[in-house]
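Running co-folding for XIL.
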Amino acid sequence: MTDKTTDTPALKANYESRFFVGNVVSPGDLTGARFDMLKKHFNFLTAENAMKPIHIQAEPGKFTFETADALVNAALEAGFKVHGHTLAWHQQSPEWLNREGIGREEAIENLVTHVKTVATHFRGRVVSWDVLNEAIMDGPLNPEDWRASLRQTPWLKAIGLEHIELLFKTAREADPDAILYYNDYNEDYQDKALAIYHMVKELNEKNPDVMGRPLIDGIGMQGHYLLNTDIKNVQASLELFISLGVEISVTELDVRAGDNHVLTEDQAIRQGVLYAQLFDLCKKYPGKFVRMTLWGLDDASSWRSQQNPLLFDAKLQPKPAFFAALDPDTFLAEHGTVTVKRETLQAEVRRGTPALDANDPLWQELPAIPVNQYLMAWQGAYGNAKMLWDERNLYVNVAVTNAELNRANPTIHEQDSVEIYIDEGNHKILYMQADDGVFRINFANEKTFTPDTIAGGFESAVFVREKAYTVVAKIPFRTIKPAGGTLIGFELQINGASSQGLRQSIAVWNDVSGKSWQNPSGYGILRLV
Ligand code: XIL
């Protein structure tokens, strides 16, 4: 194999007059080939983990800056600019800092002490901060109402809405020169983008002059994308955010393609097309779009290494995605017609009448379908599913692993739970009809149904193990007479709750729209045989 790394042009050089090109850094990256590559292609660094609350203040009042300081100082010495990530986040925060049920005064004190100490410590060394990370929920019902679209975090519950202003004001006072960002994922989903837009708009209108500037300076689009992310959605969100007058960065870019560390040639090209479209798009807003940061150097060190999401492969060789990012025009001229649309997944379902028991021998030798496409940034509970049918029922067996087994949230789909979506007629239309239904079962075998009328005849059993559970369900056919060859619209979703009772992950089989609960057109297909 020829080594393409030494003779590749520098990525950052092609964007010099447009925007910064960044990457993440961890302690192992500061020497050797990895640091050389970072220095060659990138001019901005974010600590992948070292500046998160859990690493900076694991115990109350004991601030540990050693790792973060080493990263920041090495980056500055090598000529990089540094972005700080993150002052407040409901993940990767120590339990004590914003625990469930904490009192208001104590929560405010914790927040102010943490933000003030950390932002003061890095003052003059970081250009910008993610002040607040991931505060908006996925799939808000009414995104115009940003208050109702907030994730129910302990800080929100303890302090109320003001915690957001308090966070940004405290950071501004501690480091008046740092550019202060709100940062979130799935920002290409238009409902979530709208909620973010309304939040930033209102808070900046209310606080136009916090030491000379509006409260929030920038919006970070994390950019954890998929092969079928539509560039038009990214563009719509980018332009919506720019209309607020704030600066925009893509802060955590990766594009998942393939699985199990396998990337086919076709997937590599389609991944390149999306990278090319993104770099090309972001060139068009000079002065407004300021930084494109990749979330990792190579596929092996990515937090999503299974899905090969970065510009360099596990041997640090440039992938088609690298050449696409380097020169989008040429790449798109060659491959621009390659469609990024994905086919609907189909599965064959054999005939059989199992008991409501995960150990029924009928399940054993059946092929399983994976429920492992994540819709949120977090990779939590996922699973495998098997199905059987007879003339009366569809039988579904979903084995879930990597689950926290939490049902503190009052809503089943926010708990560790499985959702089964059925469109008996496989109509693939945009709204729910009489033959459609949603069945939700949590790990304690509690259930809800939409609509309620489909509950009749439904039965389920759940088998729980450590961090894992299996749901077996019997779902009567209501509007069709099944036969060999019948096609059924079918989707599965696994919701994963955190130990604090917040949904932190969603894994699906086929429908990555996030809208399965109200729109059956994206479901996968079962073929009865
Ligand atoms: C990820 C890191 O890449 C992993 O190493 C770590 O185990 C979990 O966090 N959104 C964010 C980032 O804002 O901080 C996350 O980074 C990815 C999702």
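Result summary
The first helix runs from residue 32 to 41.
The CA atoms of residues 276 and 493 lie 31 Å apart.
Job closed.
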